[in-house]
Specification:
Layout lengths: L1 H18 L1 E7 L8 H16 L3 E7 L2 H14 L5 E4 L1 H7 L9 H5 L15 E2 L4 E2 L2 E13 H6 L8 H13 L3 E3 L7 H15 L1 H8 L11 H15 L12 H9 L3 E7 L3 H5 L7 E4 L14 E11 L5 H14 L2 H10 L18 H12 L3 E2 L8 H15 L5 H16 L3
Length: about 425
């Protein structure tokens, strides 16, 4: 039997080298689709095939909803393509099956690849410290602010908590909403919560509380109590306006775009829309404020990654080498530059050394804030189970409405953490 297998493998590798290799590549960006990513990824694939005539890429692509369904089915069956787009929730559910190759050594041995350290924990297994995917589709979450409104009210963009409270009070007195916020949708409130929690305790504390099995990293600690109290204080001072819980995503954006609100804590996906508005020249980008006595990096920023690319494990040697080569190509610095200049989504790799990209002003401003930060982390919501995140959102609504205080919020969320993430 072993001799037959050896002969078969020999024939396989001979056939592979004679007729070339075909790699199945499953993702969610169809050529000609609405996203700028579609054409960039297609062009990168065609370039790879031209530079590697012995390798053909079989595009297997679906829209987002169908991709989400099929991806789960692939995980369940254990039959994944050579290279595929995945996301943290799916990977976490099936990480023990080790369906993808570990990339740590490849990253370490190829510093020119330019993989950003802050992107590592997206497709990551804390049990073995393994990196199993390279982030591709990402975003920043910063504060957009209207410089004209700040100037007219004698204000500078705040860098500290006390400065933020002064800005809030001044705008409220002037009849201007400090933060445009979609309270009805809840998740924009949680962006404020993420930043406050991170400033108080740091990313590692949060991550380990959910992903590394550190049950002792409780959420009813003094730092998180303080973070939730600060969120409640913003609500009490009118930072989000009187009708915040009735506002959807579009409503909040309209308040900012029509200059009824001075600040908008949102993602880099807003760039293209803002750049086309008459008020575009008034809009600047800033980091979240620092917190006195906080244990976290006070300059850290959100650079999140919703989707990543991974290579299937257990492939024949030649196919694995080809798949790794393709992975490096579609997550290269050059592709990162193309994404940057398109003004939308980000990748988990740096720009080419010495690059002088042509990009929209606000995209450049985002990178200026990012480059000045001491560290970055993916949005906290990417590491929580859906039920936990839903509870978190609901508590955020209660906090800004003045229905509960920080201590009650922390106590309840700690109970939910143990129940949902630890099964207690």
């Amino acid at each position: 039997m072993k001799k037959i297998i050896a002969i078969s493998l020999a024939c396989f590798f001979y056939t592979t080298s004679l007729f070339g290799i075909t790699l199945d590549f499953y993702h969610l960006w169809p050529k000609g689709g609405p996203s700028m990513v579609d054409e960039i990824l297609w062009d990168a694939t065609k370039q790879f095939e031209e530079e590697n005539p012995g390798i053909t890429i079989n595009w297997m692509v679906d829209g987002h909803d169908q991709w989400a369904i099929k991806s789960k089915a692939m995980y369940t069956s254990g039959d994944v393509p050579h290279v595929m787009a995945t996301q943290p929730a799916d990977f976490d559910a099936f990480k023990e099956q080790k369906m993808f190759i570990r990339l740590n050594d490849l990253i370490e041995n190829d510093p020119d690849w330019g993989v950003i350290p802050g992107s590592y924990k997206t497709i990551y297994d804390p049990a073995d410290g393994g990196i199993y995917g390279i982030a591709f589709s990402g975003y920043f979450e910063f504060v957009y602010y209207n410089q004209r409104l700040f100037d007219e009210n004698g204000l500078e963009y705040p860098k500290t908590w006390d400065e933020l409270l002064n800005v809030v009070d001044t705008f409220v007195a002037a009849g201007i909403i400090p933060f445009a916020t979609a309270g009805k949708d809840a998740w924009p409130i949680s962006i404020q919560s993420h930043y406050l929690m991170d400033r108080e305790m740091g990313f590692d504390y949060f991550y380990d509380s959910l992903k590394s099995g550190k049950r002792e990293n409780t959420w009813d600690n003094p730092g998180y109590v303080s973070a939730f109290d600060r969120l409640a204080e913003l609500g009490k001072r009118g930072a989000f306006g009187d009708d915040v819980l009735s506002l959807g995503y579009g409503d909040a954006g309209n308040l900012f775009y029509t200059e009824q609100a001075a600040m908008y804590l949102q993602g880099s996906w807003e760039i293209n829309g803002i750049s086309d508005l008459d008020i575009a020249d008034n809009i600047q980008v800033g980091n979240y404020v620092s917190i006195p006595g906080g244990k976290g990096d006070q300059t850290a920023v959100t650079r999140g990654y919703g989707k990543s690319f991974a290579v299937a494990s257990g492939l024949p040697e030649e196919e694995e080498k080809a798949a790794i080569k393709f992975l490096k190509h579609i997550t290269s610095k050059e592709v990162s530059l193309a994404m940057y200049e398109a003004g939308g989504e980000l990748t988990g790799t740096n720009l080419p050394d010495g690059a002088t990209p042509k990009a929209k002003r606000l995209m450049t401003a985002h990178f200026d804030v990012f480059n000045a930060a001491g560290s970055s982390w993916a949005a906290y919501g990417e590491f929580t189970l859906p039920k936990m995140y839903a509870e978190w959102d609901r508590v955020g609504q209660q906090l800004i409405a003045g229905q509960i205080d920080g201590k009650a919020a922390a106590k309840y969320l700690e109970e939910q953490r143990l129940k949902i993430h630890y099964g207690e």
